[in-house]
Amino acid sequence: MKRKNQVQGLGNLLLFVIFIFLTIAGCEKQKKPWEGVMPPKAEKIAKELTIHNDTRIDNYFWLNQRENPKVIKYLEDENDYLKKVMGHTEKFQDLLFDEIVSRIKQTDISVPYKHNGYYYYSRYEEGKEYPIYCRKKGDLEANEEIMLNVNDIAEGHEFCRVKSAKYLVLGSYSTLSTEMRILDANNPNGKFKIFQPREKDHEYSISHYEDKFYIVTNWNAKNFRLMETNEFQTNKENWQEVIPHRDDVLLQDIEIFKDYLVVSERAKGLNQIRVINQGTKEEHYLDFGEAAYMAYVSTNREFDTDVLRYGYTSMTTPNSTYDYNMTSKEKTLLKQQEVLGDFDVNNYQSERLYAKARDGVEVPISIVYRKGFTRNGKHPLLLYGYGSYGYSMEATFSSVRLSLLDRGFAYAIAHIRGGQEMGRWWYEDGKLLKKKNTFTDFIDCAEFLIEQDLTNSDKLFAMGGSAGGLLVGAVMNMRPDLFKGIVAGVPWVDVVTTMLDDSVPLTTSEYDEWGNPNDKEYYDYMLSYSPYDNVEEKDYPALLVTTGLHDSQVQYWEPAKWVAKLRDKKTDDNLLILHTNMKAGHGGKSGRFERYRETALEYAFMLDQLGINK
C-alpha cells in the first residue's frame, strides 16, 4: 500500500514536472519579439513652468533643443530601437509596400478639362514620384506643353480669376474670418478694392455672374447662406438673400454657369449636389445611391455649358469622374481610378452606422470590410478619427486600405464632433470649451462597435494624425483598456506648453480653435485633456508614434517628449516605438510611392500585434 502510494506520488510529481515544462515551453513560444531589447531612456532635466499660480514640472522640456547633439542622439536611439523591435517584420513591411504600390497605375493621366481653347491635365510617368502639369491647344491630338504648377506660390493666400473672367480675386484667410479683394481683369495694373472688410467670425467666398456677385456667407447664418449684390455695391449692407440659411443643411460652395447654379451642400453628414435652372428656378439633386460616399464638384472652367463635371467615390468605389448634363439629367463616366491586381468591387461592403454619444447625440460611423465579415466580435478593426478645425472626414475609397481588409480587418471612420459633417454646430460643439466632446464621441463610437460585435478590445486599433494624434492621445489616457494598439502620426500632444509659446508657428492663430491658455479658464480646460500632461502610471496599449524632425506644424519634440514620459510612467510591457524621419516635415515622406513605406510600417505594427505576418 505504501509502495503504491509512493508510485502514485512519483507519478503525480512527474505529471507536475511535465506540466511545468510545457508551461515554460509555451511561455517561451509566446515571448514577445521585443523582450530583452532595452528601449532608450531620455534624461530627466526638471523644468518648472508656472502660470496662474500653477506649476508643472516638465522633465523632458530640453528635447526642444534641435541643435543639441544629445537630442539628435536620443531620436536616433529611438529609431535604432524601432529597427530592433520591428526587425522581424522587415520582410513583411517590404511585402506590404510592394503590395500597396502594385495596385497603383504608374503611368496615368487625369481627365482633361477645357478652358479658353486649351485642354489642361496632369499625368504621371512610370517610376516618377510627382505629377507633370500639361496643356494642349485646340484638341487632345495637339502638341503637349509642360507647364509650371503655381498653385502654392503664396501660402495662406488665394489668387484666382472668377469664371466669368471679368474680375481678378485676391483672398486672405484666417481661422474664422475672410477678406476678399477684387480688380477689373481688363485693368490688371490697377488697385484691388476690398469686397467686404474683414470682420471677426465672418467667413465668405464670392463668385461672379453677369453684373452680380454671389456670396456664400455665414453672416447671421451658422450653416451659411447664399447672397447676391450688384458688382459696384459689394459691402454686406447691400447683399440680398438667394438661398436662406437652414438649420439642417450646410451650404458649402456654389458653381455658376450661364444657365445653371450648382450648389454643394451637406445634409445628414453626406455631400449633396443641387442643380438650379437660373431661368425657370426649377431644381433637382443628383442621386448617388450609396449609404456612405463623397461627391464633389470638379473642375468646371467653361461658363456657357450645360455640362457639369463632378467626382464621386465611396469606401467601395474608386474615385470616378463624371460629366452630367444638367438639362437631360444624363451622366457619363469619363474615368474611374484603376486599381491593379485582383481588386473586385463586389468583394467589399460598406455601411453607415450611428453610435449614440453619452449626451444623446448620434455620431455617424462609416465602415467598410470584405464580404464574409461576420458580426461575431472576433475581427480586428481600425477606427480612424480627426475631429478638429471643422474638417469633415469623407467616406472615400483607398486601394492602400485593401491590405488590411484582405487580412480580415474592418476599417471605420468616426465622424466625431469637431468636424463639420453634420453642420457648423457639429464643429462648434467640438472646439474650445467643448473640445472633450471630440474625445468622448470617439470613445462612444469604439464602445458601440464592440457592442455591435464588430470587434473586441483585444483587436481594436485607433489611428489619427496631427490633431487626430491629439485625439488618440487623449482617448488613450481616458480609456486605454478599449484598444489593442494605437497609431499616432505627427501627434499634437503637448497642448498647453505649445499654446503658451507664441514663438511656435501657428500658436496665436490657433486661439480660435483651442482657446488662449493665458486665460485661466482655458488653461485649466486644456490641461485636463492634454495627452502629455495626463500620462499616468498605468497600463497603455501598444503604441507607434511617428514624427518629422523638420515639422513646423507639430514640432518633433512633442511626440518625443510624450514617448519619453510614457516610457517612464507606463506599467505594461506593450510595445512603444517612436519613428522620427530625420529629413521630413509634417507630411512625412513626399512622392506618391515613398510615403507608403511609413504606411507599411504602420500596418505591419498592427498586424504583428495580432500575430499576422503574411
Let me know the average pLDDT.
Answer: 90
What's the arrangement of strands in the largest beta sheet? 24-25-27-26-28-29-30-31
Assign a percent range to the helix content: 10-25%
Beta-strand level of the residues, as a percent range? 25-35%
Uncertain segments of ≥5 residues (pLDDT<50)? 1-11, 13-29, 149-157
CATH topology of the largest domain: Rossmann fold
Give a count of the beta strands, DSSP E runs of length 2 or more: 31
How far apart are the first and last residues' alpha carbons, in Å? 58 Å
State the domain count: 2
* SS summary, helix count: 12
Shape: globular
The CATH homologous superfamily of the largest domain: Alpha/Beta hydrolase fold, catalytic domain
CATH class assignment of the largest domain: Alpha Beta
The SS-based structural class is alpha+beta
What is the CA-atom radius of gyration, in angstroms? 28 Å
Examine the secondary-structure arrangement and name the CATH architecture of the largest domain. 3-Layer(aba) Sandwich
Largest β sheet strand count, sense and barrel closure: 8 strands, mixed
